[in-house]
Amino acid sequence: KVWTWSSYLEEEKAIAAPPKIFKEYQSFPYNKNGFKVGMKLEGVDPEHQSMYCVLTVAEICGYRIRLHFDEYPDCYDFWLNADSSDIHPVGWCEKTGHKLHPPKGYKEDEFNWPAYLKKCKAQAAPKSLFENQNTTVIPSGFRIGMKLEAVDKKNPAFICVATVTDIVDNRFLVHFDNWDESYDYWCEAASPHIHPVGWCKEHKKTLVIPPDYPHGKHFSWEKYLEETSSLPAPARAFKVKLSHGFQKNMKLEAVDKRNPALIRVATVVESEDHRIKIHFDGWDSIYDYWIDADNSDIHPAGWCGKTGYPLQPPLSPLELVEALEQGGCPTAGCRGVGHIKRARHMGHHSVVNCPYSEINLNKEHTLSDRLSGETPLNNPTMHWNRKSELNERSASPIINSRKCPSPSHTGVKPAPHLQPSREEDTDVKLLCKKPLMFDVKEENYRGEHAKELTGKDGSEERKMENEVLSIKETKDSKETNSRSSHLQPVILSSKLTIPAFPLRWEQHSKLLPTVAGIPASKVSKWSTDEVSEFIRSLPGCEEHGKVFKDEQIDGEAFLLMTQADIVKIMSIKLGPALKIFNSILMFKAADKNSHNEL
């Protein structure tokens, strides 16, 4: 039976969100998507919105395009609509005075488009394809350098001191003073996220001031504007924020943020002034999340059908049962499509790499930063433990910043936010210091790995057992065990059982010497570079280190890999895969040893 919106709305006795309440860029497009795979262009990096980069069209589907950062791993690819304001034709940056960040390995002063296109034998996307080239610019009161108060979109409870740092057509770039540019975002004059100077004081809201500002306890806009030789954005420049019109139980189509290649049937389950909470029909409510009502990832019912994009229909109870019976990914409702490492992978076979599994459910970041290589913490409301100093005499409390309490955690200019409560404060410290937690069901773990390590008759396992047992124990094994027992161990669930061959890791270490004495608790803290170096150090695995680096596998992800992941996802042959997977087991066994000795 073919699923249709009309039948579904009738069955559910539901209503679709009317097209008129959607923004023009959310609604049905006027033109077809004319982009072709391989075309090159310039565009905004969604994770660093102040940066324009060299991009290539990697995939076309309906009215959407997947863009690739030239010379970077394709795990950083991202999807957007063909009429997006974030993309521009080749040469736009030079024409408008914007800095273009060239492909990795190129120097800015040496890069030029004609030579690059010739070298790549590529075509520049024609200017006629860019809808924003015909934008009617409405005069605005905003100017570069003007100050305002703006919501931190990554931590929406906080309003911070900000500056207009760029203007393009009817949009301008908001930058938070003294913070790095990863928090910057583009908006229009009617955005609900921006306010004139003094708005927080007038509405008795907390204003987050720039970090390291010397007069934090007695912040005054008048003084700050004088010190920075700045002007406030005039109040008249801020346009009236109209109500969005979405109501509870309205149906629409929405991009799945956990799997951005998919658009699903969704329902508005809650509504606030400027955002809505969406629920994917048929899915558990744990997957619900808030999204700005003006986000370009939501569309009226029928958008996919009209633009030629595949729509994921609601999940039926029968499909939930069938998916579990058919094997593959054990996450309820998941068909094995998508991967936590994003566009690089088309599918997955285990909960470790499933975007919908419990272990990945609340992870906002699964990749290291494309530029710095650092992996941000995954709880945006508790990125950092920042102590606040409230000026009790002020109608607008002033917040000062402090560093994370963990001595091993330095980080790069954290997101501005308030001091947590005492309970939250403790959680933040634990977030930095507590060991990694695993909770793996015994039957799943034993069954999956036992099958992977044995042939039909178990001969491969017995062969490995005999090889291990034939090696004499080394004298320093006790000493090594003693050393590992003093390290903080990974907390393995009591349900977790490592596969059945002997777990005498000091004997295994003779076969894989680079693994000896390293507990999982240490491995869990490895960076992607450290994982890559370790893989290279294994006999016969020298060429595979690069694969792990390209896939952005850090220590935590490495420990959670199954042999099936290594063979199927990483495309590594069984021999090297066995060595790599056995290393993972030995790391965990080292921790188990240290537990037993304690």
UniProtKB/TrEMBL annotation:
<dbReference type="Pfam" id="PF01530">
    <property type="entry name" value="zf-C2HC"/>
</dbReference>
<keyword id="KW-0539">Nucleus</keyword>
<dbReference type="InterPro" id="IPR013761">
    <property type="entry name" value="SAM/pointed_sf"/>
</dbReference>
<keyword id="KW-0677">Repeat</keyword>
<keyword id="KW-0479">Metal-binding</keyword>
<feature type="repeat" description="MBT">
    <location>
        <begin position="3"/>
        <end position="103"/>
    </location>
</feature>
<keyword id="KW-0156">Chromatin regulator</keyword>
<dbReference type="GO" id="GO:0045892">
    <property type="term" value="P:negative regulation of DNA-templated transcription"/>
</dbReference>
<dbReference type="Pfam" id="PF00536">
    <property type="entry name" value="SAM_1"/>
</dbReference>
<feature type="region of interest" description="Disordered">
    <location>
        <begin position="398"/>
        <end position="426"/>
    </location>
</feature>
<dbReference type="GO" id="GO:0005634">
    <property type="term" value="C:nucleus"/>
</dbReference>
<dbReference type="Pfam" id="PF02820">
    <property type="entry name" value="MBT"/>
</dbReference>
<dbReference type="GO" id="GO:0008270">
    <property type="term" value="F:zinc ion binding"/>
</dbReference>
<dbReference type="InterPro" id="IPR001660">
    <property type="entry name" value="SAM"/>
</dbReference>
<feature type="repeat" description="MBT">
    <location>
        <begin position="111"/>
        <end position="210"/>
    </location>
</feature>
<feature type="repeat" description="MBT">
    <location>
        <begin position="219"/>
        <end position="314"/>
    </location>
</feature>
<dbReference type="InterPro" id="IPR050548">
    <property type="entry name" value="PcG_chromatin_remod_factors"/>
</dbReference>
<keyword id="KW-0863">Zinc-finger</keyword>
<protein>
    <recommendedName>
        <fullName>SAM domain-containing protein</fullName>
    </recommendedName>
</protein>
<dbReference type="GO" id="GO:0003682">
    <property type="term" value="F:chromatin binding"/>
</dbReference>
<keyword id="KW-0805">Transcription regulation</keyword>
<dbReference type="GO" id="GO:0042393">
    <property type="term" value="F:histone binding"/>
</dbReference>
<dbReference type="GO" id="GO:0006325">
    <property type="term" value="P:chromatin organization"/>
</dbReference>
<feature type="domain" description="SAM">
    <location>
        <begin position="526"/>
        <end position="590"/>
    </location>
</feature>
<dbReference type="InterPro" id="IPR004092">
    <property type="entry name" value="Mbt"/>
</dbReference>
<dbReference type="GO" id="GO:2000058">
    <property type="term" value="P:regulation of ubiquitin-dependent protein catabolic process"/>
</dbReference>
<keyword id="KW-0862">Zinc</keyword>
<dbReference type="InterPro" id="IPR002515">
    <property type="entry name" value="Znf_C2H2C"/>
</dbReference>
<keyword id="KW-0804">Transcription</keyword>
